[in-house]
Amino acid sequence: LPPIQPALPPAVLQPAPIHPAVTALLAPHVPLHRLWEQDDPAAWLREHGAAIRGLAVSTLAGPVGADLFDRLPALEIVANFGVGYDNVDVAAARARGLVVTNTPGVLDEEVADLAVALLLATVRQLPQAERFLRAGGWRQGPFPLSPTLRGRRIGLLGLGAIGKAIARRLEGFGVDIAYHGRTRQEGVGYPWYPSAQALAAACDTLIAILPGGAATRHIVDAAVLAALGPEGVFINVARGSVVDEAALIAALQDGTILAAGLDVFAEEPAVPEALLALPNAVLLPHVGSASVQTRTAMGELVARNLLAWFREGRALTPV
Ligand code: DGY
């Protein structure tokens, strides 16, 4: 028998701004409260927190965990905008019996496109070439030659849905593909390596596309970068936490590796000055999934998770 839903009517709290698709889909059905617009958020939580049954969050809300959960005694569900959910303390949520949802499936192709775009931009030095043209450098002579992508040995750090979408695209580029994940996957033809370091030693290019969080923190460290070697290119479309950023900066400064393309950083939206100063780093402001269509689909999935929970007591994409 389905569980008996509590008499408390559904109400959702947004601690920070979120995509308008979330609001558009939810608002006709469920009251939505915007915490960041309250003069005194702590006082608002004391007065109204007991009425909140759902949270809609994204990385913009910062880390979400026990602090907030404890002020929302009727909370049942935390709906995260993003396939990655390292911004949510899932252990604290589980300890309180909360459901956590994310947005898988709707952004795989978009992030894979961005990974390949960033790889090409980094290897062929496209942002540098564009800056050169705008600064009038072309009048003095041609832009220096770049390395080629063809023939590169590309290691995918992570072979989930997005990693596989990246591999499908790379098939057309005349490169070799290998991967590291916790386990070797049945039916995958690419060579598997048991560690990030073993993968780096066998490759000259690493693309990080694995979940953030404690289990993968600094999986790319100084030793992995050294194993990648002086022709090495490191691409990160996962989370800033998967790489030791200080070690990466040092490796880019002293030629341990050739270049990096980064869509994610340890302390977003802050980017270390030392990275900004590096000519061999291509830096993007976490735009992997940031197309109009994909962000709308993500927002709708956040809203549909909340509505399905309130209506049927069953979330669509629990983590
Ligand atoms: C995700 O979905 O995890 C992307 O990084 C956007 O936050």
Automatic annotation (TrEMBL):
Superkingdom of origin organism: Bacteria
Gene3D superfamilies in UniProt: NAD(P)-binding Rossmann-like Domain
UniProt keyword Secreted, yes or no: no
UniProt keyword Thylakoid present: no
MF GO annotations: glyoxylate reductase (NADPH) activity; hydroxypyruvate reductase [NAD(P)H] activity; NAD binding
GO cellular-component term (any): cytosol
D-isomer specific 2-hydroxyacid dehydrogenase catalytic domain residues: 57-319
UniProtKB keywords: NAD, NADP, Oxidoreductase
InterPro entries the record matches: D-isomer_2-hydroxyacid_DH, D-isomer_2_OHA_DH_cat_dom, D-isomer_DH_NAD-bd, NAD(P)-bd_dom_sf
Residue ranges constituting the D-isomer specific 2-hydroxyacid dehydrogenase NAD-binding domain according to the UniProt record: 116-288
Family: Belongs to the D-isomer specific 2-hydroxyacid dehydrogenase family.
Protein known as: 2-hydroxyacid dehydrogenase
Organism, as annotated: Novosphingobium piscinae
